[in-house]
Amino acid sequence: MRSLYEFLQNLQLVVFVGLGLAALYQWRRTRSEAAGWLAASFGTLGAIVIVGRLLPEHSDEALVEWIRKIDVAVLVFFPYFLWRFATTFIEPSRWLARLALGLTAALSLSILLFDELPEQGEPRPTAFTIYVLVLLVQWAGLSGWVAVQLWRAGRGQPTVARRRMRTLSIGSVGLASALVIAGAAPSEDAVTGTQVVTQLLALLSGPFFLMGFAPPSLIRLSWRRPEEKALREAELGLMQAVDPVEVADVLLPHVAHLVGGGSSALYDLRGNVISAYGHDPETAGDLLERAEEDAGSGRTVTVPLESGRIAVAASPFSPFFGREEEALFRELAVLADLALARVQLLAALRRSNAELEQFAYVASHDLQEPLRTVASYAEMLSNRFGDELDDKSTRYVRYVVDGCSRMQVLINDLLDFSRVATRGRPLERVELKDALDEALRNLTLAIQESRAVIEADGLPMVRADRDQLSLVFQNLISNSIKFGGDEPPRVRVHARAGQGEWVLAVEDRGIGIDPKYAERIFTIFQRLHTRDEYPGTGIGLAICKKIVERHGGRMWLDPEVEKGSRFCFTLPMIEGGE
Fold first, then answer.
1. What whole-number distance in Å separates Cα of residue 60 and Cα of residue 176?
2. Taken in order 325, 331, 332, 336, is the CA torsion positive or negative?
3. pLDDT digits (tens, 9 = 90+) for 307-332
4. Over the stretch 143-158, which tens digit does the pLDDT of each residue have?
5. Does domain 225-345 bear CATH number 3.30.450.40?
């Protein structure tokens, strides 16, 4: 039994000295008041254990006796220092603070008044027994207060902070229990089971203390999994937000929870409240004022953004127990800043689309009306005075009418181009064959006149705007017919499966396109032939490309075609297959 007891004592020495060193390191790293009291607690405990192991068990020397008394006098300060650590977060009543200090000081000084301390196995004098009882009350009372307050305060804290606080509570209770059992047990010279139990309790409290104030990183990561999962959801929500209020609604509850706070607010660059969580938006400006007053305390955390500022009323425990959570909060704030920038771009895009819609209205009404007037009067002039006009005047009138007609076609094509994004229908399941059939119906006359042959195979179902895809097929097949050459055009439309997308192609055996123009042909108003050779406005392929990009695909000219041309474009596959 004695060998086990001595082994536990040696192991206890290693554990408590290690705790003291860890607490001192943490204080040197943070220099916070809470870390200072914790370093005093466990530094004191480690020093006491070292001195206790160095002193002989039995000695009549006066110096050894005084060292033993000083050791006990210092020991009574451990629960007081631990209590002071807890009071950096939770302010006690004034009378309790005075009682704790007075009782601790009295115990520390009164032990020095004893002539000698009874050794193990010797009977305890009445005065010493009373001293031990008061010491047990002081230790259990202060440790119990710390344990209860930290355990209760853990509610509503992030997972890491809550578990650190509660393991500290368990450690405090464990060490206090060991002391109470040891103090209440009778003094015996031989090693007893009670002594072994007290050593085990004291020893087991060590890992709980360590988990409380300096848990290893792997354990912290394991504890933080719920917050990590919630953060991933928050990041997704930020990327989907469409206005600043939605950004705030996603962001503020998460940042408040990360620092254990009850309220948070998002402000614009002028300090105006965009939205608030757990706080009346009309008075949320108080958080910024409080942040200036509490600068450096960590009680109110603020993060400046490119587009404003976030302020959170943090838990008093956050600066010590939630330092890494504050770092996560700042990372989330960076993502929120990106989301706000994205929202601003979306707002600018909406304004641009609204202006584009206004342009479309002007183009379809105000611009075309003068053209119709000019064309009408030119035709009236030709009809009324046609016999009196010479050939040159008749040609001029025809130029005016043709010019007005081309301008109207150009305006209509511009309208089609501008409305690809603003007038498109929601994407739904569409059979590409149906979209192709609609395009062929619109091209019936051109197909008949040119005697074109259109072949299609392997067309899948996709999520798309049927009318817009029909326009893509119509423009591409119309070009194949127009540039078909001397022989009747042959056009083939087909598809193949790629990685998560369909690759579609419209190919013909016509005059083809020089690969060096592969990019230029998709630019609006770019033509490779004169209007006399081939009619058109040079906007059809630009419309096709814009439609395909709206559907999440891309479009290009395949340069590796020996004769004719092959236009390819992609469309995303429907999730889960066709």
1. 30
2. positive
3. 888 888 888 888 888 878 878 888 88
4. 999 999 999 998 888 8
5. yes
